[in-house]
DNA sequence: AGCACGCCGACT
DNA sequence: GTCGGCGTGCTC
């Protein structure tokens, strides 16, 4: 045991993670005042570089002063208990190593931005300055501007001075002591505060209250307020309700006099107070619903899962669409929560907005936190802090919810585990939430349940080879039949002139029938906009993006051409940019055009469209869903959004265009994806009682995969796929790492990619390194792309291989021959 | 990734 | 000379 005196002599140093794309930790010196309260996982504010003040997280505490430099001081300590658990810090390191990025990048996406602190350097006029003669004309202007404001930041000054780099001027002003520069640091997160009033406790006594009411006889406004209050709060019957008070807004809404409230407060009859409330409490007037009773097949699945968890850490639940997986989840969650452990329930973003949240809230109430990107950052902070404090033992959330500070997980459910949105593409870390979930569960000795109607080939393989447990649900809940899927050969229909626009007559007949029956129809076209390209009839030129190597999509809404890669948009031209001809034609079908043509064909029908363009905001999305649910819409046209997680009662027909494009997409996962998407969209038809109908238009009805979709033959698809994967050495037999090399100059990009591929092949062997190849889109945002693909078999020492790859990538980035190159590494891509 | 710092050419 | 552009290297 060290003596206290001795301990005090030791300086504490903190190695911190800075949330930016820089490798390594940085060492700061901890001021004595924080030396005992600082802990691993606490946030600190530090000066990083000459200008920036950032929030960082303590990863390590020690007493070794750095040898080569003088450590700067920690400026401020934000938490006296870990906001990030030490386990998470380990996990962040693991993720950064596995996905080949920096820990800073991991921290940056892990922490909601409300927990990072913003810093702005502010410039203020120095009131003690008294040598105006020293200033240049421009400097004098700036000083005058500064005098008008309290202070301005660099950006604002630059705008005023109309120069790009205002730094020189400010530097000169600082030297002349004309201005003061200071840092403004503030916490972005602000808790929600509710203003409340209550009767002072004196009047909780009946006799005093009566006297008061008598006294107020002649003050009708005040009496009105008081009577309103008493109507809401039965003060005499339950003083504890008075203690909780009433929201001030409830009184003002009741149109009582505002000034009367003030007078009552002034006279000590009412008192005002504030409470900090959770942002979720407001929708807490939920009706507690009992746990649903399980059907016999659900009960069976539940006990099989429990059994499977005895032996296996991860279990795959393959339950066909509509088999009622949610009820099984609910029972599992309840069980784990009762045992005192935490539960994380992951869902793809699109599925989270809908009915399921309402349903779970009814069962779990305020134990449940919701972590969603459509929510404000304040709400995310609330959930994060709620997990730390123990308020939320159960969180339902999207991909990034795997970063929440759980320390005692019992179960992670990954619903729709095959969904690609679990994989983050940009920016780094390019992690897969399902795979990270498995790692977290392993570290916390928790169980993982992967649920899907169409499991990913990888997960099903893991189940087949006994790495995962496996449970099946083959019965549809309420014994609804699976939809009847019919293929329409559009090639034949075209020959027989039985196609109008993109609609075969067969399809139109069905749609008409459905409209007459007042049942709803969904149209699935996985392309937004009006037409994917426009073409000149005279010279055949297709309008393309200036910055990317893609055609521009015509959007009727807004009358503009848009690039779906870089976001560039321009007004719809009247003439061809190549030859000046006015004969511009829209080509191909997007959701907007489908919608338009349907409206012409069925003028009386109410038609809605659901795609990225119509659901930009949280409310727009919900409004659309409500409209469809209430039956106010006859036809819904949409992209894959309509396929995912939405349960509409009255949909009895689903029409699919262009299935072929999905099936033949050049990617080794295209068959799997097509099966998943088409099965999901088909599942939207006929939820309860009746059998739904699905029509798929295709140029080639004899494709095997279409037969598998019709027969819901997942195992058949799996067998075909797994063989292909083995033959061509794709996952799950190998791990893929994709490296994308980008440069404004195509030959440089190509040369760099070639050099990299050669270096990698030298050590990893030629079989393991493919490319470089031009990707489907050669140029994005004026950068030419080349891709190198690395296939590593699972038996290989992955860690060593990655370390080598990382080294080569770093060499390339720093290479003097390839200045301006950027290299993106994507582990487990796709 | 920013961003300061330094070197270099253009212009008052 | 001063101003702005661009390339380079560092951040505890």
Automatic annotation (TrEMBL):
Provide the binding site for Zn(2+) 1: 536, 539, 576, 579
Matching Gene3D superfamilies: P-loop containing nucleotide triphosphate hydrolases (3.40.50.300), PriA, 3(prime) DNA-binding domain (3.40.1440.60)
Q: Which CDD domains match?
A: DEXHc_priA, SF2_C_priA
Q: Name one GO cellular component term.
A: primosome complex
Query: SMART domains per the record?
Result: DEXDc (SM00487), HELICc (SM00490)
EC number(s) of the enzyme?
Answer: 5.6.2.4
Q: Where is the Helicase C-terminal domain?
A: 507-730
Keyword Lipoprotein on this protein? Answer: no
Q: Which GO terms describe its biological process?
A: DNA recombination; DNA replication initiation; DNA replication, synthesis of primer; double-strand break repair
Q: Which domain of life is it from?
A: Bacteria
Needs which cofactor? Zn(2+)
Instruction: Give one Pfam family, short name only.
Output: Zn_ribbon_PriA
Q: Reply yes or no: does the keyword Cytoplasm apply.
A: no
What is the UniProt remark on how the cofactor binds and its stoichiometry? Binds 2 zinc ions per subunit.
Q: Which reaction does it catalyse?
A: ATP + H2O = ADP + phosphate + H(+); Couples ATP hydrolysis with the unwinding of duplex DNA by translocating in the 3'-5' direction
Relate the protein's function as given in its record.
Initiates the restart of stalled replication forks, which reloads the replicative helicase on sites other than the origin of replication. Recognizes and binds to abandoned replication forks and remodels them to uncover a helicase loading site. Promotes assembly of the primosome at these replication forks.
Protein family according to the UniProt entry: Belongs to the helicase family. PriA subfamily.
How is the subunit organization of this protein annotated in UniProt?
A: Component of the replication restart primosome.
Q: What is this protein called?
A: Replication restart protein PriA
Organism equals: Arcicella aurantiaca
């Amino acid at each position: 045991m060290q003596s206290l005196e001795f301990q005090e002599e030791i300086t504490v140093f903190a190695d911190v993670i800075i949330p930016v794309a820089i490798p390594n930790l940085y060492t700061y010196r901890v001021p004595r005042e924080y030396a005992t309260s600082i802990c691993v996982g606490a946030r600190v504010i530090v000066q990083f570089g000459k200008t920036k003040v950032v929030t960082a997280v303590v990863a390590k505490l020690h007493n070794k002063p750095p040898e080569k430099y003088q450590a700067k001081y920690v400026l401020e300590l934000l938490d006296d208990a870990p906001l990030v658990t030490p386990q998470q810090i380990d996990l962040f390191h693991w993720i950064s190593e596995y996905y080949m990025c920096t820990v800073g990048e991991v921290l940056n996406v892990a922490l909601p931005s409300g927990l990072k602190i913003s810093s702005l350097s502010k410039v203020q006029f120095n009131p003690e300055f008294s040598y105006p003669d020293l200033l240049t004309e421009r400097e004098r202007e700036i000083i005058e501007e500064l005098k008008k404001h309290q202070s301005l930041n660099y950006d604002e000054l630059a705008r005023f001075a109309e120069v790009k780099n205002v730094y020189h001027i400010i530097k000169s002003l600082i030297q002349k002591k004309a201005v003061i520069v200071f840092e403004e640091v503030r916490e972005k997160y602000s808790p929600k505060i509710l203003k409340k009033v209550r009767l002072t406790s004196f009047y909780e006594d009946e006799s005093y209250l009566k006297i008061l009411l008598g006294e107020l006889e002649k003050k009708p406004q005040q009496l009105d307020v008081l009577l309103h209050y008493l109507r809401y709060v039965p003060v005499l019957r339950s003083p504890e309700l008075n203690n909780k008070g009433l929201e001030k807004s409830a009184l003002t809404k009741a149109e009582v006099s505002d000034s009367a409230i003030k007078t009552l407060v002034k006279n000590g009859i009412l008192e005002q107070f504030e409470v900090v409330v959770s942002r979720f409490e407001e929708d807490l007037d939920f009706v507690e619903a009992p746990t649903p009773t399980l059907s016999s097949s659900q009960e069976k699945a539940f006990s099989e899962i429990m059994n499977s968890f005895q032996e296996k850490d991860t279990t795959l639940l393959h339950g066909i669409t509509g088999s009622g997986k949610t009820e099984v989840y609910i029972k599992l969650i309840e069980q784990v929560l009762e045992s005192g452990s935490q539960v994380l329930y992951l869902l793809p973003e699109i599925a989270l907005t809908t009915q399921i949240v309402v349903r779970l809230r009814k069962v779990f109430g305020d134990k449940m936190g919701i972590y969603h990107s459509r929510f404000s950052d304040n709400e995310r902070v609330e959930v994060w802090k709620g997990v730390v404090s123990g308020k939320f033992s159960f969180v339902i959330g999207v991909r990034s919810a795997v970063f929440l500070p759980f320390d005692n997980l019992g179960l992670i459910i990954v619903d729709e585990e095959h969904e690609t949105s679990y994989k983050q593409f940009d920016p780094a870390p390019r992690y897969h939430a399902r795979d990270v979930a498995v790692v977290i569960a392993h570290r916390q000795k928790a169980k993982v349940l992967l649920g899907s109607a169409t499991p990913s080939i990888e997960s099903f393989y893991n189940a087949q080879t006994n790495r995962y447990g496996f449970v099946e649900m083959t019965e549809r809940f309420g014994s609804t039949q699976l939809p009847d899927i019919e293929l329409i050969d559009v090639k034949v229909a075209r020959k027989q002139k039985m196609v109008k626009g993109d609609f075969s007559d067969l399809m139109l007949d069905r749609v008409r029938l459905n409209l007459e029956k007042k049942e709803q129809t969904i149209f699935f076209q996985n392309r937004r906009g009006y037409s994917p390209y426009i073409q000149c009839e005279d010279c055949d030129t297709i309008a393309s993006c200036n910055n990317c190597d893609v055609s521009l999509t015509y959007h009727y809404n807004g009358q503009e051409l848009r690039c779906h890669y870089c976001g560039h948009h321009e007004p719809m031209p009247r003439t061809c940019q190549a030859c000046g001809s006015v004969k511009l034609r829209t080509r191909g079908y997007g959701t907007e055009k489908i919608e338009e043509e349907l409206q012409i064909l069925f003028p009386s029908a109410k038609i809605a469209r659901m795609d990225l363009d119509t659901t930009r905001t949280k409310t727009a999305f919900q409004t659309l869903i409500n409209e469809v649910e209430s039956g106010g819409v006859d036809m819904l046209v949409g992209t894959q959004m309509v396929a995912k997680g939405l349960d509409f009662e009255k949909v009895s027909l689903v029409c699919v265009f262009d299935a072929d494009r999905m099936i033949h997409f050049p990617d080794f996962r295209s068959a799997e994806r097509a099966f998943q998407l088409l099965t999901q969209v088909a599942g939207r038809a006929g939820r309860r009682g009746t059998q739904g109908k699905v029509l798929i238009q295709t140029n080639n009805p004899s494709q095997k995969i279409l037969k598998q979709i019709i027969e819901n033959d997942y195992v058949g698809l799996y067998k075909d796929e797994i063989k292909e994967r083995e033959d061509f050495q794709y996952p799950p037999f190998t791990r893929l790492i994709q490296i994308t090399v980008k440069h404004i100059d195509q030959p440089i990009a190509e040369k760099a990619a070639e050099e990299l591929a050669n270096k990698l092949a030298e050590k990893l062997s030629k079989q393991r390194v493919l490319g470089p190849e031009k990707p489907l889109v050669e140029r994005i945002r004026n950068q030419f792309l080349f891709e190198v693909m690395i296939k590593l078999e699972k038996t290989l020492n992955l860690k060593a291989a990655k370390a080598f790859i990382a080294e080569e990538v770093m060499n390339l980035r720093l290479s003097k021959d390839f200045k301006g190159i950027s290299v993106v590494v994507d582990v487990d891509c796709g």
